[in-house]
Design a protein that fits this description.
Strand order of the largest sheet: 8-10-7-11-9-12-13
CATH architecture of the largest domain: Alpha-Beta Complex
CATH class of the largest domain: Alpha Beta
Oligomer: single chain
Number of domains: 2
Number of strands: 13
CATH topology of the largest domain: Phosphoribosyl-aminoimidazole Synthetase, Chain A, domain 2
Helix content: 25-40%
Radius of gyration: 21 Å
């Protein structure tokens, strides 16, 4: 007999291990994530190895925690962030994402209607990315012990034998590509907090990137570097590449794609879109001869891909920007905090 969950808010009893917790897990959470690996409700998922080894020769594993404020924002919510962020971390190695775990830390008093919306978002995001949530955990903490809801995830995927994507592989002569406009997520979350009262339309770019990575790898068989530009933005990613490979990366300011609305928010608040978080943007470094094929492949995925720079020999470990005035400046790592709790 199916369990019905009718409570309007989450209470401490829902985390106490008794009937209320069973009702929460089996009556509310499980119907959103149900699959044959999760259904037994054991303390672990039991994944057939044959399915994994058929896809590649290495296992990719990742874990992440999500604490965004507010929980819901234009273009997504903490649930879509949790699924897409984990999928994207796996995909940046060239891996095919397969299985995720989900840990929910719920504050006493959370409205069940809000939790249902977030679980529904997670279900849709997992289906779009082609992954299954196969294990999980739920904790309820007293009021003030968390800010409504935190989500922890872990994920596994399989890396194909021919994939060798690492930050240290950036080479002189390579080009830098992004798959779309920058800063949408950070600006959308900031505006959703309501503190600025800006009358602009901003939406997060939150999306899974595994389809784009597979299309990119089909167009370019030797992708050197890949990273999704989340906290710290594109500037942080490129600094990591430059330092790891001991090369320099030069960007062209005219080629940096930023929406006018995001650019306006940055100008008002003194922010730089290169440092704003993204949740659906990848940064790729690859040989120049594959540029056109790669751009075409990403465009076919619906993304507005752009070449924004190149890899040069020196100064090693630095990222430079050729400005619209013809001068050069250093693009350093983010110092301090531009925006709190954005992912």
């Amino acid at each position: 007999m199916a369990i019905r969950f009718n409570d309007p808010i989450i209470t401490l009893a829902h985390g106490a291990g008794g009937k209320a917790m069973r009702d929460l897990v089996e009556g509310l959470i499980l119907p959103y994530f149900d699959n044959e690996l999760l259904a037994p409700l054991e303390d672990q998922a039991r994944v057939p190895l044959g399915e994994l080894t058929a896809l590649g020769d290495r296992l990719a594993m990742t874990t992440d925690s999500f604490v965004v404020d507010p929980l819901e924002f234009p273009g997504g919510d903490i649930g879509t962030l949790a699924i897409n962020g984990t999928v994207n971390d796996l995909a940046m190695s060239g891996a095919i994402p397969r299985y995720l775990t989900c840990g929910l830390i719920i504050e006493e008093g959370l409205e069940v209607g809000l939790l249902k919306r977030i679980l529904g978002s997670m279900k849709q995001a997992a289906a779009k990315a082609g992954v299954a949530i196969v294990s999980g955990d739920t904790k309820v903490v007293q009021r003030g012990g968390a800010d409504k809801l935190f989500i922890n995830t872990a994920g596994i995927g399989v890396i194909p034998a021919d994939a060798d994507i690492r930050a240290s592989r950036a080479q002189v002569g390579d080009v830098v590509i992004v798959n779309g406009v920058l800063g949408d997520h950070g600006a959308a979350v900031l505006n959703a907090r309501g503190d600025l009262a800006l009358d602009v339309e901003l939406r997060s770019d939150c999306q899974p990137l595994n389809r784009q990575v597979q299309a990119l790898r089909a167009a370019c068989p030797d992708v050197h570097c890949l990273r999704d530009a989340t906290r710290g933005g594109v500037a942080t990613v490129l600094n990591e590449f430059a330092e790891s490979a001991q090369v320099a990366i030069r960007l062209n300011e005219r080629d940096i794609p930023v929406r006018d609305t995001v650019r306006g928010v940055c100008e008002i608040l003194g922010l730089d879109a290169l440092y704003l978080a993204n949740e659906g943007r990848l940064v790729a470094i690859l040989p120049a001869e594959y540029v056109q094929a790669t751009l075409s492949a990403l465009h076919a995925c619906g993304d507005e891909a752009h070449v924004i720079g190149e890899v040069i020999p020196s100064p090693a470990g630095r990222v430079l920007m050729k400005t619209v005035f013809g001068s050069e400046r250093i693009v350093d790592r983010l110092v301090g905090e531009q925006l709190p709790r954005i992912c």
